[in-house]
Design goal:
Its main location: plastid. It comes from Aquilegia coerulea (Rocky mountain columbine). GO terms for molecular function: carboxylic acid transmembrane transporter activity; organophosphate ester transmembrane transporter activity. Keywords: Chloroplast, Membrane, Plastid, Transit peptide, Transmembrane, Transmembrane helix, Transport. By secondary structure, the chain is mainly alpha-helical. It has one domain. Helices cover about 70% and strands about 5% of the residues. The chain contains twelve helices and four strands, in the order E-E-H-H-H-H-H-H-H-E-E-H-H-H-H-H. The strands form two sheets. It has a two-stranded antiparallel sheet with strand order 1-2. It has a two-stranded antiparallel ribbon with strand order 3-4. Helix 1 packs across helix 11. The two termini are about 65 Å apart.
Length: about 400
């Protein structure tokens, strides 16, 4: 026996009086037989009208769908509350990121200022006191004093260096010493702006030395980015008013030694009981070793010319030279410390780009301060070289994508 179930077309769906709960009522229109029997089908028990009594119209509130809607509403409300909590949790993270970005900006700005001030004071000293060996020794001596004070007052943890580590650091110290010496020799002969224009060729030496000693073959685009660097430096050199071969060759030599130091730092793994030495500690050790290397050489070649008697015999203001040398040495070590701190916080490419901008700042500041004569062609060549360095910094990180089989 079949029972007919149909929705009544004459009575619309009713809404609940409670506006917060929207319920729908479905109505069952029974067949003409008022008895409601569900017979057994395939062994299923049957029910007769004696157990269930219905009128011809029976109202069944169908709240299943509405409960589901309410559940969905509750889920959405719960998710919304979770989103709010997540936003509240993320706010400190966003604030922390902003603080770190501001700190990085301050460090980069401080790096630029310290480097500019070092070059200005150092150039003033080398112009009237052209003894780069002595000046370089004094720079390393000032750095050594700062490092010892840092270790004494626990501003930075004093490291324990093994003999094998010292032997690995010695080549780095030699390269670091020569790089500073050649830079000072160049600054004593040519303008600050021209020295740093020549030093813009550091990427060229980096690529060549890395290919020779590390087996790092550069990509086509990296090699292409070096063309404007070399061309721009050549154009600036041909039109430089203060050009001389000693200043040019020593600036080139500083590029070679500085990039040799960087390659050696990759070649030799400086470890401490299985851990790498941090950059600040490594710089501190190299500074002390550079002072030990330079002191006897400068005394042997240039003698005790930096004494008050020696400066007075040359007609120099002792106090002025001493103050400027002291400040230059202080700025020299400070800007290198800040540079290494920044390197620990950013990627190498970001550091390279920041260093590129720093070189522009040095060139512009030195031209304005010393009123160096610069021709239009010279400025164009410098700009092309710096642009090439920037392009190199970006393309250096581009690697060929692996093929997908």
């Amino acid at each position: 026996m079949e029972s007919t179930f149909a929705l009544s077309p004459s009575i619309p769906f009713l809404k609940s009086r409670n506006p917060n709960l929207n319920l729908r009522f479905n109505y069952l229109n029974l067949s003409s037989n008022p008895s409601f029997n569900l017979n057994s089908v395939n062994g299923v028990s049957s029910y007769s009208s004696s157990s269930l009594q219905f009128s011809s119209w029976c109202y069944f509130p169908c709240i299943v769908n509405d409960r589901r809607r309410m559940e969905k509403f509750n889920v959405k409300a719960t998710l919304a509350s979770h989103d709010t909590n997540e936003e509240e949790v993320e706010r400190p993270s966003t604030t922390s990121t902003l603080i770190k970005t501001l700190e990085l900006g301050v460090l980069i700005g401080l790096w630029y200022i310290l480097t500019i001030m070092f070059n200005i004071y150092n150039k003033q000293v080398l112009t009237v006191y052209p003894f780069p060996l002595t000046i370089s020794t004094l720079h390393f001596g000032m750095g050594t004093v700062i490092v010892l004070l840092m270790w004494t007052f626990n501003l930075h943890k004093k490291p324990k260096i093994s003999r094998s580590q010292l032997l690995a650091i010695i080549p780095l110290a030699i390269a670091h010493t020569l790089g500073n010496l050649f830079t000072n020799m160049s600054l004593g002969k040519v303008s600050v702006s021209f020295t740093h224009t020549i030093k813009a060729m550091e990427p060229f030496f980096s690529v060549v030395l890395s290919a020779m000693f590390l087996g790092e073959i550069p990509t086509f685009w990296v090699v292409s980015s070096l063309l404007p660097v070399v061309g721009g430096v050549a154009l600036a050199s041909f039109t430089e008013v203060s050009f001389n071969w000693i200043g040019f060759s020593t600036a080139m030599a500083s590029n070679l030694t500085n990039q040799s130091r960087n390659v050696l730092s990759k070649k030799f793994m400086i470890k401490k009981e299985g851990e790498y030495l941090d950059n600040v500690t490594l710089l501190s050790i190299i500074t002390i070793m550079s002072f030990i290397l330079m002191a006897p050489v400068s005394l042997l070649i240039e003698g005790f010319r930096f004494t008050p008697a020696g400066l007075l015999s040359s007609g120099l203001d002792v106090k002025d030279i001493y103050v400027k040398t002291f400040v230059a040495g202080l700025f020299y070590h400070a800007y290198q410390q800040v540079a290494y701190i920044i390197l620990e916080r950013v990627s190498p490419v970001t550091h390279s780009v920041s260093n590129c901008v720093k070189r522009i700042a040095i060139i512009v500041a030195s031209v304005l301060f010393f009123q160096s004569p610069v021709s239009l062609i010279n400025s164009f060549g410098t700009g092309v070289a710096i642009a090439g360095v920037f392009l190199y910094s970006r393309l250096k990180q581009v690697k060929s994508k692996p093929k997908i089989d």
